[in-house]
Design a protein that fits this description.
By secondary structure, this protein is mainly alpha-helical. It has 4 helices and 2 strands; from the N terminus they run H-H-H-H-E-E. The protein is globular and about 35 Å long.
């Protein structure tokens, strides 16, 4: 999903809201399964209101679900996400 989002936005200029709709549609599909659907749903929720990349939102959501209190990052946009800290 992370690479798909990047390609759709950077290469094809697909608006963020359309990418969110597409990912949400895939999550609702009965014949498609994802490794960690709750983390993806959380990442989408956070990404809607963020300027950070979807990949960072997903990394943060997965880390929180694994029990991490914080995720270190060099990325300024990601450092504004919940439970991220700038290093």
């Amino acid at each position: 999903l992370m690479e798909t989002e990047w390609v759709l936005r950077s290469r094809y200029s697909v608006p963020k809201n359309q990418i969110i709709e597409a990912i949400s549609g895939l999550l609702d599909a009965n014949d498609v399964q994802f490794e960690n659907e709750p983390a993806i749903e959380e990442a989408i929720f956070i990404w809607k209101e963020s300027t950070a990349d979807f990949a960072d939102c997903l990394i943060g959501a997965k880390n929180r679900r694994l029990g991490c209190r914080a995720t270190a990052t060099f990325d300024l946009k990601a450092s504004n996400l919940p439970s991220f800290i700038a290093t």
